[in-house]
Design goal:
Layout: H1 2-17, H2 30-43, H3 51-60, H4 69-77, H5 83-103, H6 108-128, H7 138-163, H8 178-200
Helix pairs in contact: 5-6, 5-8, 6-7, 7-8
């Protein structure tokens, strides 16, 4: 009976006190804690914008030219750091100097100095790559042949200067005529141009 009475009493109490709470006005605490709101607001701002730079940069990016054969060959397939290519590039520079010399003043001292430099570089490449796959390249054999031709032409030219002191220009024994020298220089220049083309298109 006591249990039943307690239950009924609790039910009536809950019914009459439902929704009851503090009666009165709450104090205004915004002023007291306004500094905290300011700090949170300032700290929540990112030091830089994440979205804006992306929007700007994306518009400037160019799509990868997957369909461009040059892109595939140069960027993807080729080893741009190959030491052989670097060495060949040195030969290209020498050959371009030789071509310029032959097409302009054709100074014999400059001509001989460039050919001497060419022979040194070719000799180094022949020795460095003789037992490596590069020795099978067309460029490897081509620069050797050109080096020999350049050396022979330089010797012919030097011998011609020496022979001119002892043999008459019209002598049948004099092979170092201007016509013969011009033929050799023309053949050398043709080979220089062809070799530069081969080296610049090295696979």
């Amino acid at each position: 009976m006591k249990k039943l009475f307690c239950i009924i009493f609790l039910c009536f109490t809950a019914l009459f006190t439902a929704g009851a709470g503090y009666v009165g006005t709450l104090p205004n605490v915004d002023g007291e804690f306004s500094y905290l709101k300011k700090e949170v607001s300032e700290n929540s701002i990112a030091p830089f914008s994440v979205e804006e730079p992306d929007k700007q940069n994306v518009s400037k990016l160019k799509p990868i030219p997957r369909g461009d054969d040059n892109y595939i060959d140069i960027i993807i397939k080729k080893d741009k750091t190959s030491q052989y290519i670097n060495d060949i590039n040195s030969v290209i520079i020498i050959l371009e100097k030789l071509r310029k010399c032959m097409n302009t003043d054709n100074d014999i001292q400059k001509f001989n100095a460039i050919i001497s430099n060419l022979m040194d570089n070719v000799s180094y490449i022949r020795e460095e790559y003789k037992d490596k796959p590069e020795s099978n390249y067309l460029s490897y054999e081509r620069i050797y042949q050109l080096s020999k031709l350049a050396s022979d032409t330089a010797k012919f030219r030097m011998n011609g200067q020496a022979a001119a002191k002892y043999l008459p220009y019209t002598s049948s024994e004099n092979i170092y005529t201007k016509e013969n020298l011009d033929q050799k220089l023309e053949a050398l220049l043709t080979n220089v141009n062809e070799t530069i083309f081969i080296l610049k298109n090295l696979e």
